[in-house]
Amino acid sequence: MKLSKKILKTFSVIAMLAASMVVVACAAEDDDDEEGAITGSNNDYAIAFTNNSTSMYRAYHATFNKHLGGLCQITIDKNSTGEGSIGYIFDLEENPNRAVKDPRTLCIVGFNLGTSGIAKPYVSHYTNVTDIQADNFGTKLTENPAKEKEYLKLGAMSINLADCEVEGKYVLTVDVNGKDNADYVVKIYKGKVEKAALATSTPVKTITIPKTDIYPNLAADKKIPQKAAAVYVNVFAGKTMKASWHYADTYAEAEVVEE
User: Fold this and answer.
1) CB-side neighbour CA atoms (13 Å) of 242
2) Do residues 80 and 240 make contact, with C-beta atoms less than 8 angstroms apart?
3) Torsion angles phi and psi, residue 15, rounded to 5
4) Neighbour-count burial for 89-108, b at 16+ CB within 10 Å, e otherwise
5) What is the pLDDT of residue 21?
6) Rounded Cα distance, 117 and 101, in Å
């Protein structure tokens, strides 16, 4: 979105009023959820889904508005540990008219829950994803495979979910910020972290994804473009996942056009 300086002044006043409301105007635009496993809209999404198939089931629901990341709180029922993976997708190449096998790019902060009571975080950037149901988003396909760059490898660290308990459930918070830096800065927190507490909270892991990695042809003086975000889940075969996502904040900014 490009605004003149005059319009930007008006926009800034509106933005200050809206900031106090902590409202995130999000809605599904480019979803990939054939089974309708994920429900919700705007700031809140949830899943209570049993995968009765013999293979894992992946799905995501995307935001309508474009962002430079966001603060996402992921809440997991205790009996859902060991049932799959859950996470937050950003820099998603959204397209509401996408054909089934059209390629897409995305970054993901995920948590593997394959071991009961343990979350194993991972952070990756994927390109040429043509089938999200394929193993690891299709990186193992023999023809036209997707490509992955790992910034935090699965298994490199573990989080004891008992340290993340909030009101009888497990909560993990992900903060992905591309607004305050030329790059994406990913921070992972135990428990629920609100916007007001970010400055005084200590992440268990901080990862930087350089813009040159995901936009190698972008001019040095240009910031990364705003794209869609999404909530993501992978439910293992024969398992049930009960969890929810809440967008506590999103990051976006307007470009100024000189007059």
Assistant:
1) 6
2) yes
3) -65, -40
4) bbbbebeeeeeeeebbbbbb
5) 40
6) 36
Residues 118-171 pLDDT 10s: 999 999 999 998 888 888 888 888 888 989 999 999 999 999 999 999 999 999
Q: Which DSSP string do the residues of 81-143 spell out, in sequence order?
A: TTSEEEEEEEEE---TT--TT--EEEEEEEEE--STTEEEEEEEEEEEE--TTSGGGGTT-SS
The encoded tokens of residue 90 equal: 């950003």
What is the per-residue pLDDT across 20-69, written as a single tens digit (0 to 9) for each?
344 444 434 467 888 999 999 889 999 999 999 999 999 999 877 789 99
In contact, 83 and 240? CB cutoff 8 Å? yes
pTM of the model: 0.85
Q: How far is CA 206 from the centre of its chain?
A: 15
Which amino acid is it at 174? V
In Å, how far are 47, 177, 209 from 183, measured between CA atoms?
31, 8, 6
Closest to 221 (Cα-Cα) out of 176, 255, 258: 255
CB distance 49 to 240 below 8 Å:
yes
Asked whether 233 and 47 are in contact (CB, 8 A), the reply is: yes
DSSP β-bridge partners for residue 151: none
Tokens representing residue 220 in the block: 């040095």
d(CA 202, CA 183): 20
Cβ contacts of residue 91 below 8 Å, gap of 6+? 105, 106, 107, 125, 178, 184, 214, 224, 227
